[in-house]
Amino acid sequence: MNTPTRLIGWTVAIAIAALLPFFIHSGRWLDFVELTLFVSLLGQAWNILGGYGGQYSFGHAVFFGTGAYIQAMLQFRYGLGPWAAAPFAIAFGALVGSFIGFLSFRYGLRGSYFALITLAFAEAFHVLARSLVSITEGGRGIQLTLNQDPAQALSTFQFTFAGPFLSHAGYYYTVLFLLVVACVLTWRMEAGRFGAQLLSVRENEDAAEALGVNAFQVKMQAICLSGAIAASAGVYYVQKFLFVDPGIAYGPGKSVEALVAPIIGGLGTVAGPVVGAFFLHGVGEGAKGVIAAAGTSAPGLDLILYGVMLVLVLAFLPRGIVGLFTNLLGRRGR
Amino acid sequence: MDVFGLTLPSYSWETVAGSMISGVFLGALYALVALGLTIVYGVLHIINFAHGALLMIFMYAVYFLWSAVGLDPYVSLIILIPGGFLAGYALQRGVIGRFSHGRDEITLLVTLGIAIIIENGALFAFSATERQVVVPYDFDGIDLGVTYAVWPEIAALAGSLVVTVAVWLFMTRTDTGRAIQAVAKERRGAELMGIDVDHIYGISFGIGAACVAAAACLLAPTYAVHPQFGYLFVLIAFTVVVLGGMGSFAGALVGGFIIGITEQIGRLYLGESLGLITISATFILILLLRPTGLFGQRQ
């Protein structure tokens, strides 16, 4: 698709998303869209490193969790305001990214080995968050105080008691804003020199190096950007739920969610993570609805479907749903 | 002792020796789980993320054979080992081999997808409740002076050694075993010699799954099973495999013992929770400093 068509498509999509709270009054459905946008945000973070850079991380929770923990700890332990804490949380996501990236890329870990070391780092952070009780409160987790004063809703970054509209849509706009920023960053990256270099590293690292691309530096930039975006998802999560514990922050769940959405939607495309997240959660929610209508509950059913869709997309749609559509559109245009 | 501001307790040598011995027993189990993983890696060059999920589902099989039919976990070995082999063979030929287009990253993700399906399938079917096989002899054993070894631990140690030796004999003394080694060394060349590579891949994956099925039987008297059971074990198994050298049998055994002892000593000095950091720390250090492991071949 050419740039003007994409620009129009994105503007329409963002406009619809921005107007949605005015039309959806059911908290349940808005929550569903909000959760999907949150997964899209995590997915976009993964997509920058995994989709564009070809470095498949199996432990992206490490960045999400660090963002969440820094956001929670700075408020809980050091009395910082949430708006002052957020830049630190996001910066720490990038910092952890540069730390893991420096070690892994300096020692030349690629492919499966990179996947394993990110998994190991997520588990190491998980153990530390559980064990260093004097810093992280251990397994109990950190619970932030709920602000009940509507006048302070904005200054405390808490929308639960923020009047009729903000309590309905405040967090929705937070995550939408973060996602739009992430998508714009991804798009600028894709269009620019950095994106081209990152793609060349993905396709053939040795050839890229031979052409003068500094693969180490390019991968470092990608993992920092990816870490920062995943950490911003952590900031949103903590402000929304006012709670974080080691399992939520560093457990395998977030790492898996971060990679399934972009793979299903389409690796290395701006829209991929968003399309994938909506498709996955749409199907998951639909399945839950069917089960609920049948009068039972089914823990794990949505995740079974995620797994099935992951395997099927890998088998039959190597470029994901977005790839399928660009193929169809391209064929019709010819 | 003070390390990084943490005050480490000091223990008598008997306590430390006891911890090391229980580390050996624990390590034997890790080695057995890792053996299956290392065979699959050595031949197919894929990291099988579904390994832990297979362990978990075989544990459920052992549990239900015990609770429904009253079968002792060690008797279940007779059913589980061939069953595991067939399941592994079918999984590789029917799903992993077929859907991966021969690309390593895709294979990795396909096995992850299978792990998600099996884990949540177990959650769906069996709920998150922990289930534990109870055997009458689980607290009997031998007094070793510094520690007490129960029969399930001793059986696990013996079982791991027997399985490792059996697999090694199979790989070196039979035609199929030699064919597997040929495929592992030089896939294309083996194909040209008339070896059915897809069949060999299936068999290797089947042997890997059979090892993990044996491990499930040996683990069952000691551990309660729940749907997330595999996750922790698979992380440890990865550590063992990377430490020992991907694809090396001896490495899996030695690596298993090293990790088992490291974990027990870590738990003794750093506490139950922080002690687990020794595993991820070892994992990270090995990946960075010597990704070929102790016994691995340079690539």
Secondary-structure map:
The complex is a heterodimer of chains A (334) and B (299).
Chain A: H1 3-23, H2 27-52, H3 61-76, H4 82-106, H5 111-131, H6 133-136, E1 142-143, H7 153-156, H8 163-191, H9 193-203, H10 205-210, H11 215-241, E2 243-244, H12 246-250, H13 252-265, H14 272-293, H15 301-316, H16 320-333
Antiparallel strand pairs in A: 1-2
Helix pairs in contact in A: 1-8, 2-8, 2-11, 2-13, 2-14, 3-4, 3-11, 4-11, 8-9, 8-11, 9-11, 13-14, 13-16, 14-15
Chain B: E1 2-3, E2 6-7, H1 13-44, H2 51-69, H3 73-99, H4 104-126, E3 141-143, E4 148-150, H5 151-173, H6 175-185, H7 187-192, H8 197-219, H9 229-244, H10 249-270, H11 277-289
Antiparallel strand pairs in B: 1-2, 3-4
Helix pairs in contact in B: 1-5, 1-8, 1-9, 1-10, 2-3, 2-4, 2-8, 2-9, 3-4, 3-8, 5-6, 5-8, 6-8, 9-10, 9-11, 10-11
What percentage of amino acids of chain A are in beta strands?
under 5%
Kindly estimate the percentage of residues of chain B that lie in beta strands according to DSSP: under 5%
Report how far apart the termini of chain A are: 13 Å
| Fraction of residues in H or I helices of chain B | over 70%
